[in-house]
């Protein structure tokens, strides 16, 4: 068994000792999160103890009233009133302690879960792109939201029940034994049956729970996928097909849920039956004992009340069985996320080389890379880009252009060779430094739900409004923004819907100006634009590229024809290199691409012309 220190270390390092099962390891890690709240938990136990004592003393008071007053015909009204007042006082105290105990537990549970959620979010953020390639975002959403919520239920329901109900059980047995040891033994006959039922149901219930969680996760993943691909679905009239696929997933979840509920109801009801049978049995055995004057009537009354109270906590505990199962499943899923190590990691701080006064010299030195180890996407690629140079990258679909950029941004690590900025291997630079140096504009720039102002400065409070406005003026976005009702405070919805593709692109250019990266990458940034907007973006691009090393990937030759140098990629290699004129003269792949691009451009212009004449 690993020591506590070892568990703490393993959790921090996200490692699991070999001899610890995933469930044990995940509960151990939960205990680490709970540790700072140990005083709160101790206070909960004290409140629970006092509450239970107040609850359980009540039947005993009634027994005293029956046996010491009513049954012997003692007309002591003041004693009876005392008992009633005491009974009322106990009820109020029980409520008071239960209130305090619930509040304390909720506070501790919510704090623990908030911390786990924060760490989980942070951990997911640290993951490399390869992790997101493999993990559907919908399932991550489920883990961060509903799995952590299950943990909250564990603290506020399961733990409470385990503490309060098991203590209640012990107290009841002690009180029953004190009243009559023989009847207590009779009442305990059902215990082995309870254990048998619990063990029998355990595995089956966990399976049904796991199934319903995985169905839920699949459904959420499918919904998230559809929401992000809504344009495509509508454009291809896929609503019916997607609806039918959703219905399958929904039905799967519905069935799994029903199965889980059926099992749980059956499980809980079997305890109810056992409880009622025990009461009937004790009424019979105890009744005979009262007739035989072996016990007093008040004792039988208290006994029957205690048996009812005895089954209540058992019922409570078994009702929590489900949550306990779900906590196990949720915790191991959260644990799995925590134990995922980012493939791209910074070196130790002492080994990192700070990137200062960046010139923007980039070198791809015999770079080799594949998403799967045995399929190369970039093969032995050599490329040197001088500071301030603008490189255009063209090539057929799947040639590896975007992959090259992903490697420069270190979304993935090269498998062979090296990429250097100003002569420093990017693996020796912190990712923060690297990403500060590189500004990336993609085909679909990501815009957050929020104001335009916040979107340009990316929620960085250090960037002033003046800087944002200046940047927008520079790239030609100011006019369109000031035309909007709330100007820079106009709110845009998620992904920037409400703005045209060109407008979104201009905003992302303004970001580049604001964040001043030394290297600028444009990945198909003009692909979605009509030729008129492309002109606007082209002008903005020339302004943004000024004084920066720029890499521009484009399908349209018009976007890169003025670049200092153009490289043509095919099957992960550079196959042609030179200026626009040089490459045309060579009459190779570039010339063919230019030919196609011109053709499609001409027909696009024609189409635009037709549209405007129709308009
Ligand atoms: N995340 C990924 N996981 C696995 N394979 C990938 C991934 N991204 C790209 N690929 C594969 O790598 C190859 C190169 O893709 P890449 O996107 O770099 O090409 P590209 O030249 O940018 O193409 P396009 O012009 O169509 O955008 C393709 O065969 C593609 O299927």
Automatic annotation (TrEMBL):
<feature type="transmembrane region" description="Helical">
    <location>
        <begin position="158"/>
        <end position="179"/>
    </location>
</feature>
<protein>
    <submittedName>
        <fullName>ABC transporter</fullName>
    </submittedName>
</protein>
<dbReference type="InterPro" id="IPR039421">
    <property type="entry name" value="Type_1_exporter"/>
</dbReference>
<dbReference type="InterPro" id="IPR011527">
    <property type="entry name" value="ABC1_TM_dom"/>
</dbReference>
<dbReference type="Pfam" id="PF00005">
    <property type="entry name" value="ABC_tran"/>
</dbReference>
<feature type="transmembrane region" description="Helical">
    <location>
        <begin position="77"/>
        <end position="100"/>
    </location>
</feature>
<dbReference type="InterPro" id="IPR017871">
    <property type="entry name" value="ABC_transporter-like_CS"/>
</dbReference>
<feature type="transmembrane region" description="Helical">
    <location>
        <begin position="185"/>
        <end position="205"/>
    </location>
</feature>
<keyword id="KW-1133">Transmembrane helix</keyword>
<dbReference type="Pfam" id="PF00664">
    <property type="entry name" value="ABC_membrane"/>
</dbReference>
<dbReference type="InterPro" id="IPR003439">
    <property type="entry name" value="ABC_transporter-like_ATP-bd"/>
</dbReference>
<feature type="domain" description="ABC transmembrane type-1">
    <location>
        <begin position="42"/>
        <end position="326"/>
    </location>
</feature>
<dbReference type="GO" id="GO:0005524">
    <property type="term" value="F:ATP binding"/>
</dbReference>
<feature type="region of interest" description="Disordered">
    <location>
        <begin position="595"/>
        <end position="615"/>
    </location>
</feature>
<keyword id="KW-0067">ATP-binding</keyword>
<keyword id="KW-0813">Transport</keyword>
<feature type="transmembrane region" description="Helical">
    <location>
        <begin position="271"/>
        <end position="291"/>
    </location>
</feature>
<dbReference type="InterPro" id="IPR036640">
    <property type="entry name" value="ABC1_TM_sf"/>
</dbReference>
<dbReference type="InterPro" id="IPR003593">
    <property type="entry name" value="AAA+_ATPase"/>
</dbReference>
<feature type="domain" description="ABC transporter">
    <location>
        <begin position="362"/>
        <end position="596"/>
    </location>
</feature>
<dbReference type="GO" id="GO:0015421">
    <property type="term" value="F:ABC-type oligopeptide transporter activity"/>
</dbReference>
<dbReference type="InterPro" id="IPR027417">
    <property type="entry name" value="P-loop_NTPase"/>
</dbReference>
<keyword id="KW-0472">Membrane</keyword>
<dbReference type="GO" id="GO:0005886">
    <property type="term" value="C:plasma membrane"/>
</dbReference>
<keyword id="KW-0812">Transmembrane</keyword>
<keyword id="KW-0547">Nucleotide-binding</keyword>
<dbReference type="GO" id="GO:0016887">
    <property type="term" value="F:ATP hydrolysis activity"/>
</dbReference>
